[in-house]
Amino acid sequence: MRLDVFTQIPHAFGWLTEQKPLATVLGGELELRLFNYRGTTPLRAGQVDDSPYGGGSGMVLRVDVVAAALEAAYGDERPARVIALTPQGRQLDQALVEELAAEPAIAVLSSRFEGFDARIVDHLCSDAVSIGPYVLSGGELPAMVLVDAVARRLPGALAEGSGESESFSADLDGGIEYPHYTRPPVFRGWEVPDVLLSGNHAAVDAWRREQSRFRSAV
Predict the structure, then answer these.
(1) What are the tens digits of pLDDT across the range 1-13?
(2) Are strands 31-36 and 2-7 parallel, antiparallel or unpaired?
(3) pTM, whole model, 2 decimals?
């Protein structure tokens, strides 16, 4: 798939692109493109935002700036899903991640400070998405969350079987994953559950599903 991120800080994504599983699928299953609003802004001196009508603090990303960025990137052929990252949006969950990962191409719009001119969300986007009920200084971190969540669901991103029985997966009925343990079997008196050391795979599987149900009910 192709995933395009529009941002004022494209270099912020440098670290993410070097990390697995994203790095594993880059150039193969995933084409990630970063667009800087300042590169196509119709305003002088790289301006992309302005003070809000009606007064108030902060700066607002301008609708003409975003329209110019989308037109420069796509002309009249935009992806079906153009996503604004905003607190007013649909909560990002695993069901939405799976939905987006099945798309051939998506565009993600981030903003900073006071966010988007409302006309961007209303007229230039197909979706509005939020990563949670809290406020950040910019949309770069939410964009990275979305990119990572989508990338790890692409073929080849994870070792075979790694993504089938994790939190929110269909295999666990959308619940929370069971606890994991590794060596040593005892540390400071804290013991690994006996069933995990038993070699009885059926018992291990039953224990894990019971633990998943318990964690999901809490």
Answers:
(1) 999 999 999 999 9
(2) parallel
(3) 0.91
The tokens for 52 are 């809000």
In this model, does residue 163 exceed pLDDT 80?
Answer: no
CA distances from 200 to 58, 65, 110, 119, 138 (A): 60, 61, 49, 59, 49
Gap between the terminal Cα atoms of the chain: 36
Instruction: Provide the sign of the torsion angle of the four alpha carbons 192, 194, 200, 204, taken in this order.
Output: negative
pLDDT tens figures, 81-110: 999 999 999 999 999 999 999 999 999 999
Query: Using an 8 Å Cβ cutoff, are 130 and 87 in contact?
Result: yes
DSSP 124: I
At 202, give phi and psi (nearest 5°).
Answer: -65, -40
Digit-coded pLDDT (tens) for 127-145: 999 999 998 999 999 999 9
Q: Tokens 């719009």 identify what position? A: 109
CA distance 30 to 76: 23
Residue 193 gets the label, from left (phi > 0), alpha (psi -120 to 50) or beta, of: beta
